[in-house]
């Protein structure tokens, strides 16, 4: 077996199951899970219809590069969403469909990391655990940058040493962040691109939450937006990851894309042809329908706004919690130990959250997730409100 497998840590939900496994929750209360970030809003009916209409395509082998019509739909969406000038993104060179961002983030790391170097894969901390596992299995060393309240829950990139940047092969960004909901500002994105040029590393921007935000007049910027402001039409060293899971409530479709530097996309495509991960044709056709429509995305944001408004009105008076910049998580500071809080809340109120320390790594004696919990507001409004009321009752006791 690959020895690197021994370096992998249990996934946060495995730790959570172990934490709660012997706990008997209140029998008079139904379970409410705010733990897993799985969208629960209704999937668009027109996407389901497109999928059903294309089932005859199951007899067709898909190509790894995907249908031209899908790549063109993705290109148009990037132009409209991030202000990319027409012609900058070549659908044949800069775009690849992928089976959700989780699969792509892992595969991308295997393709990009040069095992012969003593390389680092740098990520925010707390973070999406795929970044860490992908780095270890690619033969690189994960390096964690703390996301603290004092810096707006973004890494302090100015504190990173020249030696660390020199060893960096991939810098993972997540904006809006999981679990903090923080956005990486435009000026920071441009600064990081300059650092990537100086030290020759790749920026991999995980933007799967980019379409969940609160101000319709100010959509969050992305790495492509920064490239546009810099006049960087080749997207050199910049790659973005997007998905229909959160944007369109289609986590089961397993559909997303990777876009950016053609000199990176081309060898990544070669890797993927051996990886055997071509998206089924019927999934591609359903994805075209989803990327071509924004009405359902607007309606989706409205549902999340309603839930955040209702839940924060209940929790803010009793808990240190604020509305995030984006995403669907609350990153709440809790009294005492976060794992103990999670266990006791589950026992008393049958509400499940995730300890922040399970989503982070301790570095130099500090775990930036300690003392916080992540709450995913993915359940229906009434269920989220009931969960918030139970949490308030728990805190008031």
TrEMBL record:
Q: Does the keyword Transferase apply?
A: yes
Encoding gene (name): dapL
Instruction: Check the record and name the Pfam families matching this protein.
Output: Aminotran_1_2 (PF00155)
Concerning Gene3D superfamilies, the annotation shows: Aspartate Aminotransferase, domain 1, Type I PLP-dependent aspartate aminotransferase-like (Major domain)
Domain named Aminotransferase class I/classII large is located at: 32-391
| UniProt entry keywords in alphabetical sequence | Aminotransferase, Transferase
Q: Which GO terms describe its molecular function?
A: L,L-diaminopimelate aminotransferase activity; pyridoxal phosphate binding; succinyldiaminopimelate transaminase activity
> So what EC number does this one have?
2.6.1.83
What is the protein's name according to its record? LL-diaminopimelate aminotransferase
Q: Has keyword Transferase?
A: yes
Origin organism lineage: Bacteria, Pseudomonadati, Pseudomonadota, Gammaproteobacteria, Pseudomonadales
Which EC main class describes this enzyme? transferase
Cofactor names: pyridoxal 5'-phosphate
| PANTHER family hit by this protein | AMINO ACID AMINOTRANSFERASE, L-GLUTAMINE--4-(METHYLSULFANYL)-2-OXOBUTANOATE AMINOTRANSFERASE
Q: What GO biological process term is on the record, naming one?
A: lysine biosynthetic process via diaminopimelate
């Amino acid at each position: 077996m690959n020895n690197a497998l021994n370096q992998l840590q249990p996934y946060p939900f495995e730790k959570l199951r172990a934490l709660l496994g012997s706990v008997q929750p209140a029998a008079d209360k139904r379970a409410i899970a705010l733990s897993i970030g799985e969208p629960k809003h209704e999937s668009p009916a027109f996407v389901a219809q497109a999928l059903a209409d294309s089932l005859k395509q199951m007899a067709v082998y898909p190509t790894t590069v995907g249908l031209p019509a899908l790549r063109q739909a993705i290109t148009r969406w990037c132009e409209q969403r991030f202000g990319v000038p027409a012609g900058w993104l070549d659908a044949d060179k800069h775009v690849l469909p992928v089976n959700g961002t989780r699969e792509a983030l892992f595969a991308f790391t295997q393709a990009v990391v040069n095992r012969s170097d003593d390389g680092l894969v740098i990520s925010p901390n707390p973070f999406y655990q795929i970044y860490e596992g992908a780095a270890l299995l690619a033969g690189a060393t994960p390096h964690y940058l703390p996301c603290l309240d004092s810096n707006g829950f973004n890494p302090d990139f100015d504190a990173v040493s020249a030696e660390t940047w020199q060893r960096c092969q991939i810098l993972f960004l997540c904006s809006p962040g999981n679990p903090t909901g923080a956005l990486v500002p435009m000026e920071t994105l441009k600064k990081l691109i300059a650092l990537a040029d100086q030290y020759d590393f790749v920026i991999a921007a995980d933007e799967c939450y980019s379409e969940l935000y609160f101000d319709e007049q100010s959509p969050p910027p992305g790495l492509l937006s920064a490239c546009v402001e810099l006049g960087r039409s080749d997207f050199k060293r910049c790659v973005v990851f997007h998905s229909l899971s959160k944007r369109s409530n289609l986590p089961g479709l397993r559909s997303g894309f990777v876009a950016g530097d053609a000199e990176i996309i081309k060898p990544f495509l070669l890797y993927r042809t051996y990886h055997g991960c071509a998206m089924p044709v019927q999934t591609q056709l359903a994805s075209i329908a989803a990327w071509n429509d924004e009405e359902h995305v607007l309606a989706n944001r409205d549902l999340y706004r309603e839930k955040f408004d209702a839940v924060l009105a209940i929790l803010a008076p009793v808990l240190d919690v604020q509305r995030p910049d984006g995403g669907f998580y609350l990153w709440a500071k809790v009294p005492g130990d976060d794992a103990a809080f999670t266990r006791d809340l589950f026992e008393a109120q049958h509400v499940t959250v995730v300890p922040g320390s399970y989503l982070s790594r301790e570095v130099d004696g500090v775990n930036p997730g300690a003392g916080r919990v992540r709450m995913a507001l993915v359940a229906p409004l009434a269920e989220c409100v009931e969960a918030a009321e139970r949490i308030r009752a728990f805190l008031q006791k």
